[in-house]
Every structure is written in structure tokens, then in C-alpha cells.
Amino acid sequence: MKCKLxxxxxxxxxxxxxxxxxxxxxxxxxxxxxIKFTTQTPNSETSVPSSEYESNVLCKKCDNxxxxxxxxxxxxxLFGGRVRVATKNYIKPDxxxxxxxxxxxxxxxxxxxxxxxxxxxxxxxxxxxxxNLGPYxxxxxxxxxxxxxxxxxxFPCIITSYRKHNLPKEIVAEPKKIRLNTNIGYNFLIGGFMxxxxxxxxxxxxxxxxxxxxxxxEVKIIHTPKKQAADLLAGYFGVxxxxxPDYKD
Length: 249
Fold this sequence. Notes:
Layout: E1 16-17, E2 34-36, E3 46-48, E4 53-54, H1 60-79, E5 86-91, E6 97-102, H2 106-122, H3 136-146, E7 157-161, E8 176-180, E9 183-190, E10 193-198, H4 206-211, E11 219-223, H5 226-237
Parallel strand pairs: 7-11
Antiparallel strand pairs: 1-4, 2-3, 5-6, 6-11, 7-10, 8-9, 9-10
Helix pairs in contact: 1-2, 2-3
């Protein structure tokens, strides 16, 4: 069988994570089992040994070195390690709050984001059934394999967060296909963060270019207002989080 990244006929791994564990480590119990539920059955929970993974899609080199190095870098950015970045919080005149992160390795950070999108697209698991990159799948594959993130307007990703609010963060939801003006996009809701991918090349939308990671090593993480975040979660899971005892305005 061929590795889906390098396309070589080699032995493939039995377990390659589509979403890496570090992105949702808060979801695991003391036995490193993941509490999983879907938007179709939000009141039904099951314990599974680990997060979503796929068999026979990647070889050891591509999984451990190409994608693994990207995961290691981003995990250190988010949770500490031998990577130093600067953060500063801002509030715009219109009330929009965001955190600007500086000092990032643009190539590693963006390629990690694209690897998340690409892995969801190549997966045969029903959890990722909404993600289909079509002809862009092979182009993004080559970007990851060659280590070329292109420009910031090529397949940009906007990151939002509601982690500052008293709302459930222990959630990984099925990615959703969305429409962004005339373009297709995908939402990934993982551990209190929303990753919004726009499937377009050379995007010139001003606010997207200002927020997405750029070649200066900067990215803006937008803080979603509480009411908007509660409505977002309600749209996913069909519940009113305003009625939860921990919810406070």
C-alpha cells in the first residue's frame, strides 16, 4: 500500500492520529480514555482508548518526522517547552478582543494547521465525513511534504477561542463544512478553539489576512463573545448552555 503523504509503497502504521492528542488533552480521563459523543447523539457518551486515528494511511517517516515534527513544535507553542513566543491582548474600539502571538515559525505553524485539514480529508472515518478537499487535497499534500506553506492568503486558517468563558471546553466535534461568501470552508471545534479554514488561494480579504498566521510569525486568536460562543455550541449540540448552572453572564 502507498503512504498517502509521500506516495511510496512502504509499510504503513496501524495507528496515525488525525487530530493529535495534545490538542484535546483535557478530554482524557485518568486512564487516557477519551469521552466521545457526536452531534447526532449529544446525550450518549462512550469511552474510547484514544482520539480519532486511521490505520494504513501514513508510513513511519511521514508520521513521525514530517508531521510529527510539526506537532511537536505546535504543542510546545501552546503548552510550553523549548519554544518562546510573545503574546499580547488587545480590545478594538468595536469591542472585539484578540490575543496576538508573535515569534512563531510561520512554516511549521501553518503547515501543522494544513496537516490537520489534510488528514481529515484523507480519512475514511465517519467523524471526518464532511471534509473533502477535492483537487486541493493533492496540492496541500505536496505543500506538507515539501515544507512549503505558500503565502498567508493561500488556504488561510482563522483561530477563535471561547476558553475564557464558563462553557464546556472538553469537546471535539465533527468538522463542519461551511460557506464563506463564495468559498467553501471547514470548521474544526477542538478543546475550546475553533479552527476555520477557507479553501481558497491568494485570498485578499483584509480581516482574514490580518488574523491568519503570516510570514512575520504573527497570528491573532480572536476571543468569541460568550453569547456568540453559547449559540455556536447550541448549534452543534442542540442544547441551551445558558441553562447550565455554571453559565454566568
